[in-house]
Design goal:
Elements (H helix, E strand, L loop, with lengths): L1 H11 L8 E4 L8 H11 L2 H17 L8 H8 L4 E4 L2 E3 L2 E4 L1 H8 L6 E2 L5 E4 L9 E5 L7 E2 L4 H5 L4 E8 L8 E9 L4 H24 L15 E2 L4 H28 L3 E10 L19 E11 L2 E10 L4 E10 L2 E9 L6 E8 L2 E7 L6 E8 L3 E8 L6 E7 L5 E7 L7 E7 L7 E3 L6 E2 L11 E3 L2 E8 L8 E10 L4 E9 L7 E10 L2 E10 L1
Helix pairs in contact: 1-7, 3-8
């Protein structure tokens, strides 16, 4: 599916043209069962490979995938594209291309060749297009080379899974780095593997966009000091399988206990603090007491008629859906909680703010497949739809920001992995959203460690801070980053991470991913494993 999506994006982009298909013209060896068995026996680690393959099939049934584009339509379109065949010489894992093959390809004056076939490529073919052959390594090639993609990051409990886009050179996995992206791992190999392939599509088109703007830079791969990873041995596969089914049973039991016995798993709650969050001692804070069968998250403070209110997501475990509620802050406790927005779709991240004499809110409502801005009719519980945009798109955690020049910006998250990893920025004319201009480098960040918004952008001590989530270790919203925005124009974006706050300040916490500072008061959320 990820390769079909690449083709579909090329097909629909007027600035791109798929000019040529380069096919393998060599005669294939027989693919019968006997041939495959002989190859398997010669390769070694037979038992490990068979068991690993069987486990992958099982996981593919549990985590079913589907096409998100019209496969047949794209295949039909491909039949109209010019096609040539090449016949490289195979030596072990190398495919060595002749000068004649390279010259044949050069005749088409290609800008880029995308590699989705062949083994390790050698020969003059590497220079047969203006910008070389681009190839994905679905791993961070500075720490993980080899395969299977995504397995070793899961097995070794690495914080994230990297994806490297390279311009191929004669060194295996050591080509010139075009770009990298980083993604949170899933607890299952198959799901991790599928996610990183799907998410890598954005890395490719971000890099093509930068090439078109003359902003693409290449870097050399750093020294590599780990082994070349291969299909796991029988022992490692057995250990992985035990861990897999332990996780599967634990998650199933957690859902059942929550649904039928009211046990709250992965339960978020709120903490209120006084003073400056960046100078606070978090272990002194006390969590808010919650009603049964729900959690509270994504809090925003709002001052109205000299009183402070907290707007936040209330998630109902039985309904498996969130709504927006509000309470008044009295002596560090949230009181008089009322529902302010409850729709058929899941709601969270109630970004509330005032502009002029009006009060607005941009809740996260990805189920509506659009961005929605609400205007307050009667504070705090009556709101009306004010404007919409981005029809047909799933958007997460939209943050509105007015810079020192009065320019208006939307910071929002998109992407296939529950929108953890991609930060997109847009310049807008007003909250009516009549004119929306995409940042020229969108997505400006592809990195689950820093991309997703974690609260309102705020000013302090002459700096502008963007809170963001740190989704690592297979945990959604594991930590909270504070990033200083150093440069923001329609063509440039630069930020620097100052600190990552981890969920160590209370026993039983597994995550903390949101902060809102309002003068001398702040509110954060944090997640308990059980509550």
């Amino acid at each position: 599916n990820w390769e079909l999506r690449i083709l579909d994006k090329i097909r629909k982009d007027p600035s791109l043209e798929l000019s040529l298909l380069i096919r393998d013209g060599r005669k294939k060896e027989g693919q019968g069962t006997g041939v495959r068995l002989k190859k398997l026996m010669r390769s070694g680690n037979v038992a490990g490979k068979i068991l690993f393959k069987a486990q992958t099939v099982v996981e593919s049934k549990i985590f079913k995938s589907q096409y998100t584009v019209n496969k047949q339509e794209i295949i039909t379109w491909l039949s109209t594209i010019k096609s040539i065949e090449v016949t490289p010489e195979q030596k072990g894992f190398l495919d060595i291309f002749s000068k004649a093959d390279a010259e044949m390809v050069k005749a088409y004056n290609l800008d880029i060749i995308l590699r989705h076939e062949f083994n390790i490529i050698r020969g003059e073919i590497l220079d047969a297009s203006v910008h070389g052959i681009w190839s994905f390594h679905h791993g961070d090639n500075s720490i993980n080379r080899g395969s299977p993609a995504g397995f070793w990051e899961v097995y070794l409990n690495q914080p994230v899974v990297g994806v490297t886009l390279q311009k191929l050179t004669a060194e295996l996995d050591g080509g010139l780095v075009i770009d990298r992206g980083y993604f949170n791992r899933h607890w299952a190999f198959y799901k991790t593997n599928r996610n990183i392939h799907e998410d890598s599509v954005s890395i490719l088109f971000k890099s093509i966009n930068r090439l078109q703007q003359g902003k693409l830079t290449l870097s050399k791969s750093p020294v590599y000091y780990n082994p070349l990873y291969k299909v796991p041995s029988l022992g490692i596969t057995l250990l992985y399988i035990l861990r897999f089914y332990k996780n599967l049973v634990t998650k199933m039991l957690g859902s059942l206990l929550s649904k039928f016995f009211g046990v709250r798993h992965d339960c978020w709650t709120l903490f209120i603090g006084k003073g400056n969050y960046m100078e606070s001692t978090l272990f002194k804070l006390k969590p808010q007491s919650l009603p049964g069968n729900e959690f509270w998250a994504d809090p925003f403070l709002f001052r109205h008629n000299n009183e402070v209110y907290v707007f936040f997501e209330v998630y109902d475990y039985k309904a498996a859906k969130g709504k927006i509620s509000c309470g008044k802050l009295v002596d560090n406790k949230i009181t008089g909680v009322v529902d302010v927005l409850d729709l058929k779709t899941h709601l969270s991240y109630p970004f509330i703010f005032s502009e002029g004499n009006d009060i607005f809110m941009i809740p996260e409502n990805s189920g509506s497949l659009r961005l929605e801005v609400y205007k307050c009719v009667e504070f705090p519980a009556k709101w009306e739809l004010y404007s919409t945009a981005f029809e047909g798109e799933e958007l997460i955690d939209t943050t509105y920001f007015i810079d020192d020049s009065g320019q208006r910006w939307l910071f929002l998250n998109k992407g296939l992995d529950k929108k953890y990893s991609e930060l997109h920025i847009y310049k807008i004319d007003s909250l009516k959203l009549n004119t929306i201009e995409s940042h020229s480098l969108n997505p400006v960040i592809i990195d689950s460690r820093i991309a997703r918004n974690g609260g309102a952008i705020f000013r302090q001590n002459g700096n502008i801070y963007r809170p963001s989530q740190c989704s690592i270790n297979g945990i959604y919203g594991y930590g909270l980053n504070l990033n200083i925005i150093k440069k923001l124009t329609i063509d440039e974006y630069e930020e620097e991470k100052i600190i990552t706050v981890e969920p160590n300040f209370k026993k039983g916490l597994i995550a903390t991913h949101h902060v809102h500072q309002l003068k001398d008061i702040f509110v954060i959320d944090a997640c308990y494993k059980r509550m």
